[in-house]
Structures are given as structure tokens and as C-alpha cells.
Here is the input.
Amino acid sequence: MTHTTPGNEWWRTAVIYQIYPRSFADSNGDGIGDIPGITDRLSALQNLGVDAIWLSPFYTSPQNDAGYDVADYTDVDPLFGTLSDFDRMLDRAHELGLRVIIDLVPNHSSSAHPWFQEALASPPGSEARARYIFRDGRGSDGELPPNNWQSVFGSPAWTRTTNTDGTPGQWYLHLFDSSQPDFDWNNPWVHEQFRSILRFWLDRGVDGFRVDVAHGLYKADGLPDWTPPREAGSMGGSLENNQTPPFFGQPGVHTVYRDWHTIFASYEGDRVLCAEAWVEPLSQLALWVRPDEMHQAFNFSYLTTGWSACAVRKIVDDSIAAFSAVGAPSTWVLSNHDVVRHASRLALTADNPQGDGIGPRSPGLPDATVGLRRARAASALMLALPGSAYIYQGEELGLPEVIDLPDSARQDPTWFRNNGKRYGRDGCRVPIPWEADTPAYGFNSTGKSWLPQPDDWSALARSAQERVEGSTLELYRAALRLRREYSLGSTQLRWLAEYPDNVTAFEVGNVRVLTNFGTVPHRLPEGEVLLRSSGTAGESLLPESTVWMRAM
Ligand code: NOJ
Here is the structure.
């Protein structure tokens, strides 16, 4: 087997670009992005300077949760194309030097999956039911759910089945939508299925997996009741103060990742498993990336850190300490398809629990100019940090959250399960603009779009930003070029003390990175400026901006 010497694997320092397939590029003009669309646009990502792409699910699915409800783990949904389209996309990406990570959804399947359909048609206690978590209800007639768990999307996490004779039957568990029944990972059969699914895609040549709900596969014995200590709406659980939810962060998950690690080790090249695990504190999350488990875990504690120099210094320190204690790189991420885009989030003036989204009636709506300025500063800071960084499609264009989507256009199950009280995640999922002043901004050629695009996105389109000095696209491109040139991903970070409290200042290798979180400018030291997120040559360290300088 050819593997790089441990410590030098590509994923330790990679910048990975998240493609949300339904909103990236639409080759057949039906208003939903697809795999041939991705293939056609890959050169733009090579040109941006990323190392890898991660694709959210494109598998056969009724699309009740935008593909995170999988009905066939080894096929492509016709909405997105075919397996041959996938192979072509993979080849093209590899030709361009881009690695390809795909999404794996092992916590639950779609209720349309034949395994679940068979379970529904089979009697209680049958082998088919043992693949999922079916239980009798409480109450004299089993009319109450087996416990009090709430779904992450809101409302009870149990749905009652109907027996084949029409009488009410058992209940099944779904931590997410009722169309996403949870597997029972105590059943060896489930392990066997997922080993084959991993092999199916590894054999095709994928470079890794982002593992959905990687903290959720095991539930505590007896499925005890649980009253969360904080607002619903979080995908995760705090493991602090014994507040471990009985459905997240159970020790059994680690046996699964150790098993998958050995499968990975039997394949050529350095392939990566990245955990989507909403687990705190970071010292607990680090358990997911011990040397014999997964390789990376999303750093959501970093993502949820507010606009504050002091908070950013702390989270960067805590992250590097927690992950390096187990020999793993930290990851860094500011946006994805589940959270308010950081060009809006960083300027929110009211609390916004992760996953709640924002809409026209939300309190504390952001000022777009402040949001973009802060987002550019935050991204420039993030892209200098040692470790691996994730970029969500469109953030390199400075896209904001789309706030004023009409209620009738919304599709996130969160919206429906809360009767419109939580807007959900549609606002960060709007198809991205490629070309100014064309139908659907070049997303396709018909002008159709599964979520309406704002009228004022021409100026944000890639074509309007390419080679335009000071554009967000050129800022990202320059940051990625310099990051590579100065090997920032693999260099130790050293804080500098001689700056005011509201300025973060650190050196990575030969680069000094200064971010002004305050409202007044600061003098820059003598030296060569390599990059600035706001302002022009000769200016000071402007408020809410980041500057990279050559270190003395
Ligand atoms: C996390 C995914 O990122 C999110 O989009 C999805 O709704 C849930 N997991 C359930 O699969």
C-alpha cells in the first residue's frame, strides 16, 4: 500500500471546498444542480486554488431533507445524473489535481429505503425491524411515544406505524425528520451494510467521506428520557457537566470508526474520514480523531464563535491544543449548508441558534455591509491558520444569507416541523451566481432555480469578480495562493503580545496575520503587506479587517 509518512498526509493542511450539488451548477436546466454541472465547473475551483471538494449527498432519495434521506446508498439520484456521470466527474477532478470527498449518511436512511419498507411490512420482533429502532408505545394502548425525545428539526422524534391490518402499531425513532428512520447500530447487520457501502465508493476512487451525524449512531441503553439543558435547534450535545444526551456521543460510535479506519488502511493512498459531530468541548470532539479512528472533525466550536478578538484567540488556542493532543490537525470552518452564511451571521444582533435560520420576521437582522466586511476579515484570518480549512460554495463570492425567501418557496423540513416558527436552512442554500446578467446568473441556461435567487446578485457573480482588484473572489484566491506558497497549513502558530486587546496578532512561519475586531484603525508595523481584506495599499489596519504581512 502506498501511504504517506504519517504526519504528511494531504488532508492535514488541505483547503476543502463544499459543493452543495443541488445549488452549484445545473447542466440540464431543470432548476436543480447536477453532477455534469459540477464537472463543467471544476476548473473554476482549481483556479480558486482549493485542494479538494466535498459533495453533499447526490444519492437516490425522495429529497425530503435535500438528500440526507438516502434510499439507495450506491446509486445516483436521476435528479443529479448517473453513476457514469459521477465517474466522469471524479476523473475530471483528479485530472485537475482535486481530491473528492463524498457524504456518508449512516445514522438514518430514508423511510423510502427498501430496508425500511421491508421493516414496516414485517412484524414486531422480526429481523427486518431489528435494522431500525422500533419500540412499543407507552400508555395503555401504546398511544404515547416510547420516550420524550424531540427531533433535531422539532416535534417528537418518534412516529407511530400502522399495522398491515390498519390498526396502530409500534413507533420508530427518527432523530431528524419522520422520513429519516434511525438505524440500530447494535445490530451487526447494519455494520456489514456500511462496510460494503464504504468499499463501493472507495473502489470507485473517492478520496474520503464526510460522515453525517457521526456522533449519533449509538443511543444509550434503555433509551432514557432526556430534557435538554438548552434551546432545541442544535444538532449537537454538550458533553460538559454530564449533560450528554442519550442519543449523541455514546462510546459505541468509536468502535465503528476504528473498524472503518482499518478498511481505509487497506486502500491505496491517504483517504480521509471527516466527522460531522456537534460535540463539545473540543477535548471530547478530539476523541473522534484519535490515531486509529477518523482523521478530521468539523470544528463547529470555531464556527459558532462570535465576532470578538478575545473569543477567537481562545478558540484557536483551544482547538490547536485539543486536536494536537491526539496528533490530529484542527479543522476550521465558517459556513456550510446548515448555518446562516457567515457574511450575514457575523453581523446578526440577536441570538440565532444553529439551524434556526433567519427570515424577514427575525429579530436583529444583519447589516449587509458590516456582514461582508467582517466575513472577509474572518475568512482571511481562517485561511492563515495551521490545519485544514473548509469553504462553503459561494462564500468566496461573499454571498449573504438570502433572508427574504417567500414562505411558499421554503423547503427545509425544519420550517414545516415548526409551523414556520423556525425558518431553517434554505437561506444558505440558494443556487450560486456564476455570470452577471444571464438567466439564473449562469446557474443554468433556462433561468429556473429550485429556490429563487435575489434580484441583486449580478455584482456578486463570479464573472463580475474575476480579476477585479479588491473583490472577495480575488481575496480568497490570493489567500489560497499565499497559504500554499508560505506552507501556512503546516506551520506552527505563535501569538504576538504587542497589540491591543481587540486585535488578534499571530505569526505562522514567515507571515504575520493581524485582525482588527474594533472600530478604530491601528497603525501597521513597517513591512511588506501581502494581503488585506479591506482598504487599499498604504492604509492602516482598518476596522474589521485582516492584513497579512511578511514577518520580520
Ligand atoms: C447534518 C446535515 O448536514 C444536515 O443537512 C442534515 O439535515 C442532518 N445531518 C440530517 O442528516
